[in-house]
Sequence to fold (950 residues):
Amino acid sequence: MQILDRRLNPRGKNLENRQRFLRRAKALVQQAVRDSSQARDISDILQGGEISIPAGGVDEPRFRHGPGGVRDDVLPGNRKFAEGDLIPRSGEGGGSSQNGGKGDDEDEFRFVLSREEFLDLFLDDLELPDLAKRRLAEVEHEGVRRAGYAVSGSPVNIAVTRTTRLAMARRIALRRPNPQTIELLEGKIAECEDQEGRAALRTEIAALEAKMRRIPYIDPIDIRYRRFENVPKPAAQAIMFCLMDVSGSMSEHMKDLAKGFYMLLYIFLTRRYRHVEIVFIRHTDEAEEVDEETFFHSRATGGTVVSSALEAMRSIVALRYRPEDWNIYAAQASDGDNAHGDGETTARLLRNDVLPITQYFAYLEVGEANEREDRAVSRSSLWGVYERLCAEGLPLSMRKVSTRGEIFPVFRDLFQRRHGKERPVL
Amino acid sequence: MTAHAIKRLYQGADWDFSTLQSVHDACEEIALSELGLDLYPNQIEVITAEQMIDVYSSVGMPLFYKHWSFGKHFTQHEALYRKGLRGLAYEIVINSSPCMSYLMEENTATMQALVIAHATFGHNHFFKNNYLFKLWTDAEGILEYLNFAKGYVAQCEERYGQAVVERTLDSAHALMSHGVYRYPGKKKLELRWEEKRERERRAHDERNFNDLWRTVPAGPGKSVSELSAERRRALLGLPQENILYFLEKSAPRLLPWQRELLRIVRHVAQYFYPQEQTKVMNEGTATYVHYYIMTRLHERGGISDGDFLEFLQSHTNAVFQPTYDDPRFSGFNPYALGFAMMRDIERIVTDPDDEDRQWFPDIAGGKDPMVVLRNIWANYRDESFISQYLSPRLMRRMRMFQLHDDPALAEGVRVEAIHNERGYRRIRRELARRYDVGWIDPNIEVVDVDLVGDRRLILHHHVLNGRLLSEADAKRVLQHLADLWGYDVLLREIGPSDAVLKEHACSPRGTALVPGITGRRNIV
Fold:
């Protein structure tokens, strides 16, 4: 009998099988991820989680009996039946069991995706459009990369396997005697009867030992070091402005939607791009730059002057982000109300100052849950202004959401990887 | 019984490797001297929960080739386990020599003792002695063979691309349940020679390759059409119920390596074939053995009272049989039925009443229950075991009854028999049938193929009691079959008096399984 401790064996034996499965079911899984993300809170999405896909794409069919036919079954636990009793069939009256199992092949297959897998799939084909300006001067040392072996280096980098391999090759090539041979000979001496034989063996051992001393076990020429090199990587720089209306006209529901949208944007940018900076601006009748925490979690109230936010953005750009070096993006969320008379200012600011320096400007209008249809008809003041600008072919996209479930499709829509369509020509 | 006391084997729930060793030795003494078991050498491996899920998903084998479907099962098990919907088995045991048992590290000392008694003695004895396992499986060779299979599949993927290998395996897996020999007569597979065989065959092909043969003009071939249909079928070995075997030998468009893949899948299916047929007996045997050993250990002082209660709780959970109207009911629990029958047989041998003497004259009142049980363990499978040894008393105790569902009877389902004098034999026969593979698996065989004509492959499903195939599944399996065969496939469902009840036809999906050129000799 043998007891083996396998606990330290490499784990993840099935990792490859799991990846094969995900690859195979990719389209289905992606769809499922999108469907499931609509039903969930954004903070939930960050946790990854369970999804289910129709078993159809990844089924393993077998020949088996379908429903119908004469069946007998033996069951335990009879309490009241006597031979010959008739038990009415359950289910719709008179319907035989033949149409009972119609849906049996539409089983759902449920499983859990890790957070990483989930987000990767969710954000799969999204990108910041038109990431054009790449300033190569700004380089970043991506850390180090293995680059073969070297004969010199720091002792911590000794490549042990490589070194011992070379040493072994050298020992074999130079025929270094191994200790076992000597032991063997010593054993022979002990057994050997006659004096002469013993002496011969002794000299042989002495010769071998001398040779062993001449040829070292590990020679400095065997030693190899792992070589590393630094890999500079050019990076494109981008800055995203998040402009949110927090005025009194925004109801809790609307703020929720807007925050959901920004949360998603935030996840997307931080996961996908290493060099995106994010500036949070919230505005009522005046705008202020705030930090992430305040932006997402604190409250404010007041009137609405949209141009104030654009003005703030313009000054921040002028101060910190030279448009020649930075790809500038902006995402604005608002209920569409604006102070009377501010519409013209907003339009002018956008046309003359903001849009020329941005690669892409996304506008999200949030509405009440119950006013879906008529909202689209009775346009808000801001919507009208933006629509005019959009018609001029400026790099501006606008969408409207009124329920939580719409955020995800709209978000995807705004940041879908696109080819030419709606892409601003600069 | 001579109950000489033994030292307490462990204290509390903690265990270490020396505990396992001493528990194993104590169990072994009882297993050999009192139960008279005959065992493969044991190998106990301690693993983590994650490794347990790993073993789970590759059909319970320690090593297996790579395929997405195992990933699917892994993903599923993991999801259930993570959410706490399902616990893991306490152990998995592999029919190999040495007999490998996996123990989870989370188990308490009592659980490890239970598992050792259950797996390393109960299952081990059953694997080594049951005639089905002796007939169909090669415990010495299986691990080596799986290693070869794993390497071979990986090598194929390297040479011909992962996609086409995966598709071939998909198709082969779909036919796995129809890739076994059900009747003895074929010689037992010597798995260890398989690798050598495949190597030699390839070497032979390479040695004898001569490009000249390609240029030899084909003469006017023998007019095969003259062969009678009878003769043609005989040449192809038809009818053939082992569909995978038939495809491996006769499918005209498969490449040699694809045939080898079919062969691998077929061998694996054959290896697992006995396990499906002996679930009740296998678990019954193991449960009986662990119950006996644990009880004896307790009697002799090896296990404290508290630990014995812990054992009893796990044991009763395992042998719990919900009744038919219980929401937890999902058929007979093989542990419950098997264990109850083994105990019942022990009772019939040692303490029979008149009814037992009448029903089981050959074993009632025998001397040693172990002789009887060992004989049963060696020579029966579930179906024959139940049809011979399910006693009226047990039927009464489990309150069994038989339902007869005939769609022609509009009023409802009839209670055909209950646990009374008139019903015993009928219930027993019907229950035994539930475990008869010939009854559970659809009876499908390859009956004909016109190799000089359109090469359409014809299969028959012999329908029993009007139970047709599940349409959607049949379609999908046929698609796989057609892909492997390379030409059209037709499946007829044949009812009583040879009436064709239904037909399924399928054409291959273009070049689904063709990696490159097909240069295969014609088999006519």
In short: Chain A touches chain B through 64 residues (CB under 8 Å).
